[in-house]
From TrEMBL:
It is found in: Nucleus. SUPFAM superfamilies: BRCT domain. This is BRCT domain-containing protein. It comes from Callipepla squamata (Scaled quail). It comes from the Eukaryota.
Amino acid sequence: MYKDHKNLLVSFINTVLFKCVLLVVDFLTSFQLMVQKFARKTQSTFSNHITDGTTHVIMKTDWFVLVCSADKELVCERTLKYFLGIAGRKWVVSYQYHKNLLVSFINTVLFKCVLLVVDFLTSFQLMVQKFARKTQSTFSNHITDGTTHVIMKTDKELVCERTLKYFLGIAGRKWVVSYQWIIQSLKEGRILEEVLLFIYLFYLESSVKLFVYVLFQENFEVKGDVINGRNHQGPKRARQSLTEKIFKDFEICCYGPFTDMTTGHLEWIVELCGASVVKQLHLFTHKVNSTAVVVVQPDAWMEGTSYEAIQRKNNVAVVTREWVLDSVACFECQELDAYLVS
């Protein structure tokens, strides 16, 4: 099965990426035999001469770095084809530019990076564990900083129930995907996740540096939930947000008790979304341009609790927990007014 995963990705690389490659080699006649073999297998065209149709100029370099790093360099001699390649805006790449490197990268990086958390169905976990073994991934029932995917039970339209792991997955900017992702991946013999293909791109300034571009597939990402709407795209919005923190301008005190999650869980969620967590009501700092909020769940409290007194004494807005949950689910901070506790 693991070999099938690799072969399907290589097949995709062969049929999509390399059919357009027109190769020119700048050195080593003996090495040209390998390039010619590479060209035949990838349906590319090999030539010793640069033309307008040339896409890649192959250079001999000192050494090659597999994992992208701005500190590592590929250095070559300056030759006629080197200058013509740059002047013609071709890809000027190392002789190590070969599909085996893609396979190696797939082997060592792609299939070991998926850390799965399943939110439901103990019986279904057997299938996830099988998937994890086949792909050399790690399976866990608990979300950590290293978790990459949270697996949810969804309907056919990728809509799920709101659960603690759902909120933690969005707040932590994880892939929140349907269990159909697991089923379809096992059925097709490959991981249907964000990485379809790694393309090695080389850019010339004073030297050659390596970058990796990733193409994304989102066919199994959860689109919405049964409370906030079936297509609000909160998980995707969170995952694609590089710097946005929806609670970055808030000091939040989670004033329990709460049902279905602990106070610590709720604090974790708001902290992941950029809030400054306040443990006790008297610890608010009331910083400039910061909003002080106390989050409560009235139906979990005993009768007689005076939220008005909390608000007046601490100069804070007192809102229901739904403000946090709705904001996180949609990954968009909701207006406080609609959630104020009277």
